[in-house]
Design a protein that fits this description.
The chain has 70 residues and is of the alpha+beta class. Helices cover 23% and strands 21% of the residues. The chain has a domain at 4-51. The longest helix has 16 residues, at 36-51. It starts with a strand and ends in a 19-residue tail after the last helix.
């Protein structure tokens, strides 16, 4: 599932979050660090994971009966 939409904008592409008003543009990134579109997509996926996808219980948390997970 994509967590963003894309739209051409003034020589770049704007990536907009489907769950909030957050957005980034390919023009925000430097080609010295790789493909701008890839960098923007990575930023949007990270934003979605940190802001909109509920985290599950970490594997190191104990079970409810006191046993530990490893």
């Amino acid at each position: 599932m994509r967590h963003y939409t894309t739209e051409p904008m003034n020589g770049g592409i704007t990536f907009k979050c489907v769950s909030c008003e957050h957005s980034v543009s390919t023009l925000d990134y430097d080609t010295a660090n790789g493909n701008r579109r890839t960098q923007a997509a990575k930023a949007m996926n990270q934003h979605s994971a940190e802001s909109h996808i509920p985290s599950s219980r970490p594997a190191s948390m104990p079970f409810s009966d006191g046993r530990n997970r490893y």
